[in-house]
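Treating backbone geometry as a discrete language has practical consequences that deserve illustration. The amino acid sequence and the backbone structure tokens for this protein are reproduced below.
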Amino acid sequence: MANQVIARDDRIDCRFPDEEELKTLPLRKIPGEHAQTRVVLMGDYEGVACGGTHLARTGQAGVIKILRDQSSRGKMRLFFLCGQRAARHYQATYKALDEASSLLNVPPDQVPAALAATLEKLGAQGFELSALRRDMALARLPGLLETAAGLPGGWRLVAAQLPEQEAQGLDALASALAETPGVAALLCAPQGDKFLFTFARKEGPGPDLAALMRQAGIRGGGRPAFARGAAATSAPLEAARAGLGQQRV
């Protein structure tokens, strides 16, 4: 509607009407009592009392592009561009759409549907990759159990660092190791610029793995039988291994 008004190039008048004329004008808001009131009239359909600077004709605005709206204290706030700013925005938006169209190898009007299909496909592939990495981590179970070292109180310790590609299977492998009675699993794996840690054992009496994680300097927490956290290096794994050997269980 705003751009239709701009296209009509309606005249905009700024003047000081007398009191009688003021009552007949299509003003958005009745002004307060003043010796003189300046009004700005756009065609015969829009008017405000205002002392600011205005265009001479609506066509001088060029074009209006409303970007978004926002609720604000029970009212609606509009964000918009006009004139050359709006033209540059249209140009930048079309350029981005054209590049996306080329990358997806579809016409511009089919970009949203093609992008949605691509994201759905990537999501399915990501799920399959996560499952594969979990299976890769779980494949280590027999070998890790063979390395279990004895601890005071009859517990056996499995402590290991997994490669980065198996970080997503960390919790699953720790939980699987904990299914073996008397086994406490202390595992870590790099992920980006940090190391993830998961400590696990069977529920019931036994070492407090959440406390052990804190003592080793790992940011995180959990329950005595299961805890997870993160640290800048893998060094806390050795600290936790040593600390577990000193715990009373």
